[in-house]
Amino acid sequence: MTLLLVILIPFLGALIPPLVIRSGRNTCAAATGAVTLLALALLLSHAPAVFSGAVPMAGVAWVPSRGLSLSVFADGLGFFFAAMILAIGLLVIVYARFYLSREDPMGRFFAYLLLFQGAMVGVVLSDNVIALLVFWELTSLTSFLLIGFWTKRAEARQGARMALVITGGGGLALIAGLLLVAQAAGSYQLTDILARGEMVRASPLYLPALALVLTGAFTKSAQFPFHFWLPHAMAAPTPVSAYLHSATMVKAGVFLLARLWPVLAGTDAWFLIVAPVGLATMLLGAAIALFRNDLKGLLAYSTVSHLGLMTMLLGLGTPMAAVAAVFHVINHATFKAALFMSAGIVDHEAGTRDIRRLGGLMALMPITGTLALIAAASMAGVPLFNGFLSKEMMLEEAAHTSYLGLDFLFPVLATVAAVFSVAYAARFAIGTFLGPARHVYPHHPHDPPLGVWLPVAVLVVPVIAIGLFPAPVAGPLVALTAGAVIGGPLSDYHLALWHGITPALLMSLLAFAGGAALVLAFRRADGVRAPAAPRRQDHVRAGHRRPGGGVPAQPRRPA
Q1: Is 403 helix (H, G, I), strand (E, B) or coil?
Q2: What is the DSSP string of 415-468?
Q3: How many CB atoms lie within 10 A of CB 380?
Q4: CA-CA distance, 342 to 99, in Å (whole number)?
Q5: Three-state SS for 140?
Q6: pTM (2 decimals)?
Q7: DSSP of 36-104, one letter per residue?
Q8: CA 175 from chain center: how many Å?
Q9: Cα separation of 171 and 165, whole Å?
Q10: Over the stretch 14-62, which tens digit does the pLDDT of each residue have?
């Protein structure tokens, strides 16, 4: 029954922060962290069984007359996602304790966060289709509360409504789609459905079910043409952005595609729809990201692009593409959460997120700058960091993909997307941290206290460790998770820094060359990069810093 407790603990724990906030902010954050830590510990107690090949299960009767139960299971895929949600959630709680100002109702914030956390864990561990749908809709409702946390801001209210309408509408389609899948499989239990993939694919209900399920997954993971809601969610506090866009909300759609891969993949319809949608999203998000001047806006569109990358890989329908998708989920969660947190630190310390008013922060914020540059290098796919490995695997799969008889389409467009990814990552790094120090920042920046940059440092550790030692560090987890996705044994493969002279390596070199040329052209077009006129979102209330040189109070400013 401990698996059920992993879901229930965050929901029950959401009652605690509003009650203990009167005892102080530290007590409130500690209590919230303890709730998440307890859920994570209970989940990890099943790790030996999961890694040995067992699938822990638990359940209680829900509607016995209809054969429904609140049942959960932890195969490799569910276990990995639940661990990622809880582990990064713990780091976000620590970060949020120091990020939020004294004016922000911290008890309410942490209550929303725990409710959202419980809903996400419920999605990834549910064995019953109806329960999964309930938790799925709860993620939309609780993310609405988190995105619109600063209720007095019009941008926050608009972003929250947009996210709710798009993901909620997709959720309605998903309800219909999963009910059709259950009807075709003859069961509401996912474990039964996963074992009856051939039956589902042979059913006349397959195509309408596929279209409806994909609508739900694409809206949740901001795939084209539903990508526009995600950047508007940047009106949320940075801890929310770091959490929703690295490990939780937007990864739910990717999780669903991976979960139902043994049931829905392997057909022409799956390949013809999912793969090009992912490719188009990857290219569009990367292209738009390059031209964003707001750091969080740039990272938001880069998230859209990386979600497209994962979707494209799952859409290719091959076991190795599924391995690459799983590997990139791991890598993206680490470097993207670190980058969002770094952007929040810059915003607090310098008083602006406008890249046109930044530059040279490495000399003033060496700790933050070092951590952010490592994460940005991983996002660009620089060797020796984890993003390089999964990007190479993506390019390798794209290089051998033919679409409607066009052998060049996927390799060329994937390389173009990689060019843009190098360029926007370089623009983030150079425009924010490199170059000479400037003297026009709204505030004089310096590194924040330990509690703010420590979560970033923890996230950067796997960025480096996986990049240098991929097989021992990430190999077992990737094999466990990918095996659960494809529903069978994996073919021989190995994670390594060097695979020889391959098409992927040549495509990667071309991406670096093209990205460098694009950045140079962009900087020339940008002229002398004169400071932009101060805008309302760049203004931070002067003089409001915590004792001991802490982070300034969080202003309510547009994204």
Answers
A1: strand
A2: HHHHHHHHHHHHHHHHHHHSSSPPS--SS------HHHHHHHHHHHHHHHHHHH
A3: 25
A4: 11
A5: helix
A6: 0.91
A7: HHHHHHHHHTTHHHHHTT---EEEEEEEGGGTEEEEEE--HHHHHHHHHHHHHHHHHHHHHHHHS-TTS
A8: 23
A9: 10
A10: 999 999 999 999 999 999 999 999 999 999 999 999 999 999 999 888 7
Secondary structure of residue 132 in the 3-state scheme: helix
Tokens 């949020």 locate to: 96
The helices-and-strands tally (H runs, E runs) of the chain is: 25, 2
Nearest-10 crossing angle of helices 470-486, 76-99: 120
* 381 closest CA partner among 443, 313, 309: 309
pLDDT digits (tens, 9 = 90+) for 259-316: 999 999 999 999 999 999 999 999 999 999 999 999 999 999 999 999 999 999 999 9
- Sign of dihedral through CA atoms 512, 315, 387, 353? positive
User: DSSP class of residue 469?
Assistant: S
Q: Which of 452, 387, 407, 390 is nearest to 99 (CA)?
A: 452
Identify whether the C-beta of residue 422 lies closer than 8 Å to the C-beta of residue 511: yes
Is the Cα torsion angle 552, 550, 245, 514 positive or negative in sign? positive
